[in-house]
Amino acid sequence: MLYITCVDDRNWFQKMGSVWYGDSSVTLYLPRDMYNNLYIEAGSADITVVDDLTFRYAEIKTGSGDIDFRSDIADTPAKLTSRSGNISVSHIERGGFVIETSSGDVDIKKVYTCAYKEIKGTADELSVLSEYFGFDKEISVKTASGDIEIDGARAVDILLETTSGEIKLADVYNYVNLQAETISGDIEAQNVVSCISISFKTTSGDIEFKGIDSYSQMNLATTSGDIDGYINSKRYFSIQTASGSVNVPVNDVSATLYHCSVTTVSGDIDIRTPE
Fold it and tell me: Does 152 fall in a domain?
């Protein structure tokens, strides 16, 4: 077990000014291997954990600094927390993540928490997927005013929540539930597949998508924003709108198991599927 602590040993009168002179940093080199636990806590420092390392568990906290994490997680999902800094996770081949920040952006690229396995079936048949892969293979992100962007990911569950930020998804394969929710931001998705369900919700933002699909349920909801996009498979639609225009394909009676609920109050709805 290794502990590293940085202590500010300046005299009290040296801390009265707002200017800090000198470089304050710590660089730790570790052999390429698997380690048990990693815990890092800092006030305003940037934190980088490079690749070629594996931890059974990792927890990183910083106040206003950024977090750049590129190591695999073997067991319990890693917890990455920053009040106002940005959080980046990239090039992960195993392990889940729970990410929280107040005003920082979250950027996830090429994060594959579990092995690829193409599965199709009914919702009941697919409900065992969490037990098959393990509940620790999730990606969970919460931020207040920051944007959330995922470019390349594979996970059992993906849960994304922001208040005023935008959510962008590209090249995502999800095995159970994919949920993305924002209040005033837009949601954009391209090449996104979930085995069981997809849920996109926003209040005043738009929902735009191209090439999304789920093998069971799909829920798209906004209050004053528009919903526009292309779904890869035929759907049985349930549409609710007060004053917006609606353009969706005629319901396919053979696709009742592939239900798609679309709800808006004043926004327009324009959805295309294969003919």
Answer: yes
Q: Which two tokens stand for residue 96?
A: 């889940």
More confident of the two residues 44 and 149? 149
From residue 153, give the alpha-carbon distance in Å to each of 79, 108, 126, 169, 247. 18, 8, 19, 9, 31
**By the 8 A CB rule, do 60 and 81 touch?**
yes
Q: Which residues have CB under 8 Å from 114's CB, separation 6+?
A: 94, 133, 134, 137, 154, 155, 156, 175
**160 Cβ contact list (under 8 Å, min separation 6):** 140, 141, 148, 150, 167, 179, 180, 181
Q: How do residues 94-119 score in pLDDT, each as one tens digit? A: 778 999 998 899 999 998 886 544 54
Instruction: Tell me which residue has tokens 């053979």.
Output: 254
Query: How many C-beta atoms surround the C-beta of residue 23 within 10 A?
Result: 5
In this predicted model, what pLDDT tens digit does every residue of 145-193 receive, in sequence order?
A: 899 999 999 888 899 999 999 999 999 988 888 999 999 999 999 999 9
Residue 244: how many other CB atoms lie within 10 Å: 18
Domain with 72 in it: 32-86
Q: Nearest to residue 263, comparing CAs of 207, 215, 213, 187?
A: 207
In angstroms, rounded to a whole number, what is the distance separating the alpha carbons of residues 66 and 106?
10
Residues 82 and 112 in one domain: no
What the block records as the tokens of 188 is 């954009």
Residues 231 and 118 in one domain: yes
What is the rounded CA–CA span in Å between residue 175 and residue 136? 13
Rg of the chain taking only CA atoms, in angstroms: 22
